[in-house]
């Protein structure tokens, strides 16, 4: 394709357009010259990939707005027989075969550009910056036409989507025309009425564009699912699953579309065929990502996905990676954040087998990621059914999990310790838990000293949760006199006092403070002599809320 030089171009921007055309032609000739004469030069390859492509991206912002009209749906490419393939303005896409393989990602990038322009237009309309409103409308119109043209050229468009495209293009043109009228008047009354009309049209354009993109994405997703369902090639199926997994990283809305198109059903069909065992882990990782939305969980429930997960987890011939990803799916569907619990009815039927397999996976995990996935699944399960806690006690889970905390290969981050101490906190409500904890109580108390190894906010938050849940567990278990006495002998009281009095020790966390005050009061009730008079006067004797206010307002120099 070449730049449009038809006589219908508007006369005003021709001078700018010719300058940019000339610069563009020079750059493309230089690009081809380097490809032919210096095919193996690292420096020239860097030039053709970085400088030329970056210049073309910058061109979109440097040219006059009217000049961009001429570039409607006009991708700029080198010769078809060139080794470097096709370069597309404003898309940031590389070689042609790469474009073909990543139709979906290209579509998403172009959609983001249009959405950004529409968002800018809403903002500028509110401020009454009419020149900017019109220029943004022109750019949005160009991008929409370019997107529609490129997508239609790459894939046959369904009839229903063609209607959306036609309507969208008409509305974009109407938006461009009506904003242009606002440039030639200073009549405030007219501009006010136009602002309302433009806002209405702009809302229609945004809605129509969103619907068109959803339909285009659904169309592309259907192609991937058909590949998974109809192909016998592990390579083709694996590639389609990789593309689906990549799409799930773009947010819940896309996961909902993927689920509605039947991806979960297709992926579980793969996981039920022995000949595709090498794809189990890959497929289950994708299922876990899709199940972040309710639609994905509903689809899993309809195809008895929980039974399939139980089979993989309990199958000793399954590789660790497949069992770890099955654990990830279990963790996802049992998350307390989900509002719907209908799917958990079928989960209860397989719970004993799943819990048993998960604690075995924690015990035999070869790395931190596997342990994290298995322990996260167990932590979520203990929230919704006390029977799971009883099963874990029977399986010696407390010793297994606390022993794992000594193994840096399995428990190497605060996130894993967070899962462990969550399980312990939920188990501690059972009376028989106290005797189990006594053997490993020193390891539990060490969790009160958890500190972040970096300045990462997420790691700091994980350490806060570990401290809080360790204190909660200790408070619950200290109803047993033997546990309370052992905790005092292991110097739990000084550490709890330190966490109460020093805000930096608890990362200024109020939840840690409350948990530590509760644990101290439980210990003091059984062993009042274990706490000094000054600490008793400030941390035990007052009402809990008064002790909380006192400690939360302490300056660091107080300690």
What does the secondary structure layout of this molecule look like, with pairings?
Layout: H1 14-37, H2 42-62, H3 65-70, H4 96-101, H5 103-127, H6 130-154, H7 159-181, H8 188-230, H9 234-248, H10 252-260, H11 263-271, H12 280-290, H13 294-302, H14 305-314, H15 320-333, H16 344-349, H17 351-364, H18 368-384, H19 386-394, H20 397-404, H21 414-427, H22 433-438, H23 441-446, H24 457-477, H25 481-489, H26 492-501, H27 510-526, H28 533-540, H29 544-552
Q: Please, could you describe this protein's structure?
A:
This protein starts with 13 loop residues before the first helix and ends in a 7-residue tail after the last helix. α5 (103-127) runs antiparallel to α8 (188-230) and α27 packs across α29. The protein has a domain at 97-215: Four Helix Bundle (Hemerythrin (Met), subunit A) (Up-down Bundle), CATH 1.20.120. Mean pLDDT is 80; it is low at 1-20, 39-48 and 61-101. The chain has 29 helices and no strands. The chain has helices spanning 14-37, 42-62, 65-70, 96-101, 103-127, 130-154, 159-181, 188-230, 234-248, 252-260, 263-271, 280-290, 294-302, 305-314, 320-333, 344-349, 351-364, 368-384, 386-394, 397-404, 414-427, 433-438, 441-446, 457-477, 481-489, 492-501, 510-526, 533-540, 544-552. It is mostly helical and 559 residues long. One of its GO terms (biological process) is establishment of mitotic spindle orientation. Residues 47-93 form the Protein inscuteable homologue LGN-binding domain. It comes from Amphiprion percula. Residues 110-559 form the Protein inscuteable homologue C-terminal domain. GO terms for molecular function: cytoskeletal anchor activity.
